[in-house]
Specification:
Blueprint (H helix, E strand, L loop, with lengths): L1 H19 L6 H14 L4 H21 L5 H45 L2 H12 L1 H48 L2
Helix pairs in contact: 2-4, 2-5, 3-4
Length: 180
């Protein structure tokens, strides 16, 4: 225990010494870092992090209602659940964005300033502003949809029976869990 505390103290002291000796960032380099951060739109990371558990919760609710509620009750419940999820995202997004905006200057900006030269930052900006990059990003949804449809069609004969079996197992397990 004593060695662990000693190790933690040395680690903290080393970090403090390293940050104290970090070279100051010139205004020109800081401007380049700021431009990279603006083009990167990293402040949406909190929203992206929330989308997965919210989508999972909605999907789980849909699965729980399937076969347990009449179609009209299921649809009404899902409308309420989806509405609540959308409202949650609308309420949480400004909070996560404000947190990211507050943390980026003290976490990400120093990393960029430390690990990239001014020339590398200029190159990174050129990449982020590239019309080819923008064209590629605009095509991503279409490419993902096309690939997804192709994979689905290609694997349907093998995957669908397995997926149906999984759904049946889950349904049986859920029924067993809720049956007195």
């Amino acid at each position: 225990m004593k060695q662990a505390k000693h190790g933690l103290m040395l680690l903290a002291l080393s970090a403090a010494c390293l940050s104290a000796h970090a070279a100051p960032v010139t205004p020109a380099k800081q401007a380049l870092v700021d431009q990279v951060l603006k083009l990167w739109n990293i402040d949406t990371i909190g929203q992206s992090m929330l989308q997965v558990p919210v989508a999972d919760a909605v999907q789980q609710a849909r699965a729980m209602l399937q076969g347990r509620a009449t179609p009209d009750k299921r649809d009404a419940a899902m409308n309420d659940i989806v509405g609540a999820a959308k409202q949650f995202m609308a309420d949480a997004t400004p909070i996560t964005r404000a947190s990211a905006d507050r943390l980026i200057p003290t976490t990400i900006a120093p990393l960029l300033a430390e690990r990239y030269t001014e020339e590398e930052l200029r190159q990174l900006i050129a990449i982020l502003e590239s019309p080819v990059k923008k064209k590629f990003e605009a095509m991503l949804p279409e490419m993902q949809k096309t690939l997804g449809e192709g994979v689905a069609a290609d694997t349907r004969p093998v995957i669908d029976p397995k997926l149906q079996g999984l759904k049946e197992k889950i349904g049986l397990r859920l029924r067993a869990a809720v049956t007195p």
